[in-house]
Design a protein that fits this description.
By secondary structure, this protein is mainly alpha-helical. The chain has 8 helices and no strands. α3 packs antiparallel against α6. The protein binds fe (ii) ion (FE2).
């Protein structure tokens, strides 16, 4: 077996291992919800030392940012694509709830450390997330089970990879989105590339025409 075959085999084994280890999409979402719940509780518990409160707050804001982006870019588009009008309605509503959460997250991040509204804002964020989680784990989960069925495992693996990349600071602009736009409202990369190419083509054609006109004028003068 040559080096290329060995490397290919190793990569395939690594991918298989990832897929086996990853939870399905709904288990992954639920475990993120549990994590956020525990972090909110730690922050809001007045007996928690202040350094731990600050750490819990940073962790929950980061976790929610990654979680909402992961859902908007992978889970919701898959649900919308596989489902019908009911699923589309649920996804649109969920994205709006995410947008409200993201606005509040941005406000909390921008607060000075001892701002008197901090705890009030985090409490409102917690309540907003609790409401969202309740709807997601009841209605959205049952829709996902019905329309996505056995695709939930592969989707879970994809979502886990997204989370891992985001935690390593990858995914760049895609995870830094704070506009609340869902992935399906963001122009696909191919389209923007296509537009650039079209512009380039137009510019090249214009240059060629100008050069041809200049050559024509020279000839006429001769
Ligand atoms: Fe969500």
């Amino acid at each position: 077996m040559n080096i290329r075959e060995t490397m290919g085999r190793m990569l395939r084994q690594h991918d298989d291992k990832d897929a086996q280890a990853a939870p399905d999409a709904l288990t992954l979402i639920k475990s993120d919800h549990e994590e956020a719940k525990a972090l909110f509780a730690r922050f809001l518990d007045s007996s928690t030392p202040s350094a731990q409160r600050r750490s819990a707050l940073t962790q929950v804001l980061d976790a929610l940012t990654i979680h909402t982006n992961m859902e908007e870019q992978i889970f919701y588009p898959a649900l919308r694509k596989a489902g019908g009008s009911e699923e589309k309605k649920s996804v649109l509503e969920a994205v709006e709830e995410h947008a409200s959460a993201k606005d509040l997250i941005a406000k909390i991040r921008a607060l000075p450390p001892r701002d008197e509204t901090l705890t009030a804002k985090v409490t409102v964020l917690k309540e907003l997330i609790e409401h969202h989680v309740e709807e997601e784990e009841s209605q959205v989960f049952s829709e996902a089970r019905r329309v996505l069925g056995n695709k939930l495992e592969a989707l879970g693996a994809e979502m886990q990879r997204f989370k891992d990349r985001a935690k390593r600071g990858e995914n760049n602009a895609r995870t830094k989105t704070t506009t609340g736009k869902s992935s399906d409202t963001v122009a696909p990369r191919t389209t923007s590339r296509g537009k650039t190419s079209a512009k380039k083509r137009t510019a090249t054609t214009a240059k060629k025409r100008t050069a041809a006109t200049a050559r024509g004028r020279k000839k006429t003068r001769r």
